[in-house]
Design brief:
Blueprint lengths: L1 H23 L1 H19 L4 H40 L4 E9 L3 E8 L9 H19 L7 E7 L5 E7 L1 H5 L3
Parallel strand pairs: 2-3
Antiparallel strand pairs: 1-2, 3-4
């Protein structure tokens, strides 16, 4: 029973955190989509073959830059919420950190204020987290096509309790 409550509490805190991240950048996504559309319209008026080649390279660079910019914005937005989330957790966590990982991975680190005294079954927790993350990852992947989320739970002494990676293929498998 204690393990179920612990798992549900942990999953709930995580979902609240991530849903806040995904929603903040929806407006940014819309404005960037419209600027990309405007850019494509102006690009279509150019007719020479060399111009088209240059445009293609420019669009790919712009797309990669926009993806990186959106990713950095999401990380900053999530980082700005960590203190409030710590307060909402009722002292469960002594620290919550959001970091930028390699290959568009958002890393959430939750450090418990007190040793929970139990082990986290990451295999059992992952399906619950994946279901909760599906709308978040689906929203983010419009801006960052290869986004992943890593959730790390730490004891107060910084030893790892669980390390869970959630990918788009995980969320795509959810019905």
């Amino acid at each position: 029973m204690k393990k179920k409550i612990f798992t549900i509490l942990t999953a709930t805190v995580l979902l609240v955190t991530l849903s806040g991240c995904g929603n903040k950048d929806t407006a940014t996504s819309s404005s960037s989509k419209s600027s990309i559309s405007e850019s494509k319209k102006s690009d279509s008026s150019k007719s020479s073959e060399s111009s088209k080649s240059s445009e293609s390279k420019s669009n790919n660079t712009t797309s990669n830059t926009n993806s990186t910019d959106h990713f950095d914005t999401m990380i900053s937005a999530a980082q700005s919420q960590t203190e409030q989330i710590k307060k909402q957790s009722g002292g469960t966590y002594s620290d919550i950190a959001v970091e930028k990982g390699d290959n568009h991975t958002i890393i959430y680190k939750y450090t418990y204020a007190k040793d929970p005294g139990i082990e986290i079954d990451a295999t059992a927790l992952k399906p619950t987290l994946v279901k909760g993350m599906k709308p978040v990852i689906d929203g983010i992947k419009a801006m960052v096509p290869d986004v992943k989320i890593r959730v790390i739970y730490l004891k107060p002494d910084k030893t790892e309790l669980a390390n869970i990676l959630i990918t788009q293929s995980d969320t795509d498998a959810v019905n």
